[in-house]
Amino acid sequence: MDQDHDHEPIASDAELPAAARARALEALLVEKGVLAREEIHRSVDWLVSRSRADGARLVARAWVDPEFKARLLADARAAAAELGLDAGPAPRVVAAENTDGVHHVVVCTLCSCYPRALLGPPPAWYKSLAYRSRAVSDPRRVLAEFGLELDPDVELRVLDSTADIRYLVIPRRPPGTEGLGEDELAELVTRDSMIGVAVPAAPASATADS
Amino acid sequence: MRYRPGQLVRVRDAPSVGHVRTPSYVKGKAGRVERVHGVFGNPESLSYGGDGLPGQPLYLVRFEQREVWSGYAGSADDTIYVDVYEHWLLPAENAAHFPGIGLSHRFARWPRKMLRIFRGGWLAPSLCSGVK
User: Fold this and answer.
1) Are strands A92-97 and A165-170 parallel, antiparallel or unpaired?
2) pLDDT tens-digit profile of A74-117?
3) CB B79 to CB A140 under 8 A?
4) Are strands A155-160 and A102-107 parallel, antiparallel or unpaired?
5) Across the interface, which of B73, B85, B131 has its CB nearest the CB of A110?
6) Does the model's ipTM exceed the 0.90 cut?
7) Interface test with A, best of B72, B77, B127 (most A CBs within 10 A)
8) Residue B101: other Cβ atoms inside 10 A
9) If 0-12 CB within 10 Å is exposed, 13-18 middle and 19+ buried, where does residue B58 land?
10) What local confidence, expressed as pLDDT, does residue A72 receive?
11) A179 confidence band (pLDDT: 50, 70, 90)
């Protein structure tokens, strides 16, 4: 490859300031003996291994089993353990159920707290200043921008996860899904529906049947 | 635990100095305890390498959106739930000179602003408040 031209390597041009800061912090923490590089890699591996699939399994089970749903609402960690799922180390996860009259939406105004163990890494917009500020002060318009027009009679509850609790929304089961099994139901449970900025859609076949 | 579910509380209206997990938009606002989460290490100590002791009870507090934001555009029934540590809460009845509940927002707030000036809180540094 021809290296003989005069500009800085692309890699350093493309590095975001936040990435450079993280790299500098990591180097310092390792140098001071606060953390081992392996611990950092283990944490990152664990985080990127998580996905919304675990949260979706919890929701699908709650849809088909009311007693499980009651246990999920009372103690999400214990309910996750029943399905062999790891709700993660601290902090604690609390589930919030959407009903005909109440819709929940989750935000972290102070940073980006999120039930990572059950949903994976948060999407970029969840961490944006625009979402974090507008989701608390003008939540109905934010939901409308996500394509969710909420009925004015529904109580919209914003959950600001400011402290040691992470919130997982249990969306409402879509109509026309009575014939679906738990695995098929879990496919319908999107990440955004467990944050509360969307609702799960019925599959096209179920809509056609109903 | 000083507070029970259903109890009316008010968030202290104090400057955020250091790493504080109480968002500015609920300071001075009245709400109702919805749930007691348990006792957790105090983040204002933990975040600086401290032991977080004494532990702080953490409450899920329910606020009416119209109480929190003047000119809130959504429905009258809309609410916002915020986790607040006990040392940031006051019993709402003890805040009798802040008769915010049921009265207009502006009328309830201005005497407190005066108090803040007298206490010197007006000039206190706010290193990390609200959205960072």
Assistant:
1) parallel
2) 999 999 999 999 887 767 999 999 999 999 999 999 999 999 99
3) no
4) parallel
5) B131
6) no
7) B77
8) 16
9) buried
10) 97
11) very high
**Chain B (12-31) residues lying within 8 Å, Cβ to Cβ, of chain A:** 21-23, 25
Contact: A161, B83; criterion CB under 8 Å: yes
Q: Categorize the per-residue pLDDT at A210 as very low, low, confident or very high, splitting at 50, 70 and 90.
A: very low
Which residue of chain B comes nearest to A113, CA vs CA? B21
Give the per-residue pLDDT at B89: 97
Q: B131, A132: Cβ pair inside 8 Å? A: yes
- Any idea what DSSP says for residue B121? G
Position A200 pLDDT exceeds 90: yes
pTM reported for the whole predicted model? 0.82
Distance (Å, whole) CA B1 – CA A207: 50
A163 in Cβ contact with B85 (< 8 Å): yes
Q: How far is B114 from chain A (nearest CA, A)?
A: 26
A184, pLDDT greater than 70? yes
Q: Are B81 and A159 an interchain contact pair (Cβ–Cβ within 8 Å)?
A: yes
- pLDDT tens digits for range B24-52: 999 999 999 999 999 999 999 999 989 99
Chain A closest-CA separation from residue B22 CA (Å):
7
Instruction: Return the residue in A136, A142, A168 with the most chain B beta carbons within 10 A, the one to mutate for interface testing.
Output: A136
Q: Are A80 and A144 in contact (CB under 8 A)?
A: no
Sorted by sequence, the CB contacts under 8 Å of residue A166 that are 6+ apart come out as A91, A92, A93, A94, A113, A114, A115, A116
Contact B73 A94 (CB under 8 A): no
pLDDT above 70: percentage of residues in chain A: 90
Burial class of residue B8, CB neighbours in 10 A (0-12, 13-18, 19+): middle
